Structures are given as C-alpha cells and as structure tokens.
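Kindly draft a sequence, keeping tokens residue-aligned:
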Amino acid sequence: MRLSPSTDTLRASRNRSRRRGIFAVLALAGVTFAGLGALRRGPLPAVEVNAPLGALGRATPVEVAVSAAGRGMSRVEIELEQSGQRFPVAAEEFATPPGWKLWAAGTRQKSWNLTLGKDSLPQLAEGPVTLRVVATGAGAWLRPGLAATSEQVLPLRLTPPSLEVVSTQHYVTQGGSEVVVYRVGATSVRDGVEVGDWFFPGAPLPGGGERDRFALFAVPWDVADSAATRLVAADEVGNRREVDFIDRFTPVALAHDDIELDEKFLARVVPPILENTPSLTSKGNLLDDYLQINGDLRRANADELRVLAARSRPEFLWKAPFLALPGGQVMSAFADRRTYFYQGREVDRQVHLGFDLASIAKADVPAANGGVVVLARWFGIYGNTVVVDHGYGLMSLYSHLSSIDVAEGDAVGRGSKLGRSGTTGLAGGDHLHFSFLLHGLPVRPVEWWDAHWLTDRLKRKLGDALPFAG
C-alpha cells in the first residue's frame, strides 16, 4: 500500500525547488555581470582636430575634441612628431565605470584648446609636423579599450613673407593721403599699411605681376609723426615683416575755433535729430540732448563710416580730377578743433573732420567724381547725407542736404547732381559739409581736389594702373 506524502513534505519540496531556481538565476546573473565586466568595452571614440589656420607658427591655436558614447573615454594623448622625435603636448586619464554597470556613464566629451608652435616647443624646426591624437575608449577586465588615432600633418612656418617696396618718394602730410607700391612673398595673406590702430589693406596692382600690390593710405589728423606708419605683410600663422618706408612727413598745425551755443540753435537742430535717430533717448533738456548728439552720436556715425568702407569696390571708379562745390567758400577747414560754450561756460570739445562750404541757399551739390552711391539717407549728426564710393577704399561724403536726388546703388558721374545744400543735422546755416574718407578715415580734401597732387603723388607711382588723365 502506497502512502501519500504529507502536506509538510510537499511544501518543503516546493521550497527547495524555489531556492534552487533563485540560486540558478543569481548564478546566471553573476556569470552575466562577470562576463560584462571581463569582456564589455566601450565603442571606438571619435576624434576631431580643428587647426583653422592650416599651419603652425610660433603660437597657433588648435582645438582637439574627443567624444565616446556609453562608458566614455579612458585616456587621451596628444603629441607632435617631427623627424622621428615625439613631443608630448597633453595627456589625460578618465575614470570609467565597470562594464557590468549598464546604467553608468563616464566622460563622454572633452575638448582641449591648445596653443602649439615654436614658442611652447623650442625644439621644433621649420617644416612639416605631425599632430597626433590617440583616444582610448572604456576597456574591460580582459579586453583593453578601443583606441582611435587621428593624425594631421601641418607645416610649421617661422619665416615672415618677403616684402619689397617698389615705389619711391613717399611724402605724406598729417591728415593727408599717399600710395605705396610693393611686392610680397607667396605666403602673404594680409598686407597693407598700418598707422597706429588704422589698417589700410593692400590690393593687387592692376596690370602688375602676381605679387605686385599697392595700398592707398593716410596718416590720421591726430598723429603728429610717421613713427607708427609701417608697411606690413603677414602669413596665416602671424609671421609678419614690417618695413619703414615714409621718406618725408609734414606735420600740420591744427586750427582752433570757439562755438557759442544758444537756445534758438539747440531748439532747431536737436528735435529733428532725435526724431530721425531711434537709438537715442532724450535726456530731458536741450543741452544734454545736444551733448549726447555731438558726442555719442558723432562717434557712432564715425564707426558706421568705418564699417561702410568694407563695401568699397576693388577698382578705380574715377579718371579725372575731383570737383569741389562750385563757388563754395570755406567756412570751416579740415580738423578744426572746436570748443563749445553755453552761457559762457565750456560744455564740449570735438574735432571737425571735413570742409564746410557755402555758396547760395539750396545750391546744387555735384558728385566730386565718378563712383557708386553707398549711402543716401538721414545720417545722424550729418542730417541728409550722400556717400559716394570711388573705389579702393576712397569715398566722398556730402551732408546737411536739404534734398537728396540719388539712391543707394546708383552709378554717378563726375558732376552728377546728388542733391541740394541745406541745414539738416548739426548745421548752423545752409552749407555743404564735405569729406573725403579713406577706409573710413576722414582725410584732407585739398589734396584730392589738386590735379597736380594726383599726378605727382599717385599717378607717378601707379602708372597705367591708375586711369587718370590729369
């Protein structure tokens, strides 16, 4: 006779089976996690090298960026190699979570902003250099991390471009203009004339050789000598050569003028300028508003003219001498230093960078020479204004106009009517405020009005490159 197992026996058997199942699951999980820890490694890192200049010099910026998904990167090494010699640049190790931590992440992204070149590694010599980056991903107990290698060969340049002055007799006056013709080496990417903070870029010489260049330049009105004037040529990594080329510099004694402000004048000029200049907010009284206009707005207009110079066409748009306002009498000359008084006390000082010319009320204003209109609108302190581009950074400005007869983009000939003189902007009476600008810098107009000066100072150096008949 068979006896049925008791309830306790059955319950004990089931518990043993359940424990064996749990142990089996735990054992399988342990084996799995151990396997992950021993074998699971991260994916191959990605390396990006940004050498924007395409070469190295004495101190050249280079950016290295590394990214690694999953558990991140474990090590990054950056080095330069030249002629078999290796020069460590940077090395960094990163903690990575163990492979069994499926939810954990290490360092997935990192970038290095480096300055590489001769200054940091004096052992380097001019010639090709290999920039190498080795980025290793997360490894496992039994498997090392995958390593990605990026190599980039860059030329190391230490010699400045060659620079030869071709023209002679560079005579410049304070506030005046000149031209220099020169020849640069093949590695030059930026050349021209520097005068303090001003830079006058060079351009290919029309009809010249591949490396022949010229630059129209000026010495600013407030620079009393030519010591800061240099012809320069630089390559893409900053190696530069400078040449002192000024043969004669003539300083100029600047005139001075006192201007008395009164309520009638302020009431006439201030409201229209505020109405036409949304960037200005009234300060609540005419004098403070005038001082804001005469100072802040004047500087903002000067900055805008400097930016406008970038739109100048790389060609000579004129062939004949420049015109002045017919019958115009000079009411104020270039670079007059003005002191402003109100009710007997000094309130401001500014410099008048142009010529004030007056003939009759609402006189026709002709274009000084051929060119293209690049500005024709209300323009801050100048009121209704026209600016004509004559090419290679030379522009002429006509302001305080009562009316404008041209639009931006119009081609104009020498003597074309641009508008009529007037009293808009900061004008005390009907007149034309006229300026020549060279790359945004106001320069002495009398030179450009002088056919002899154009022939002697420009045509003689530029030759057939300048289509000027005299």
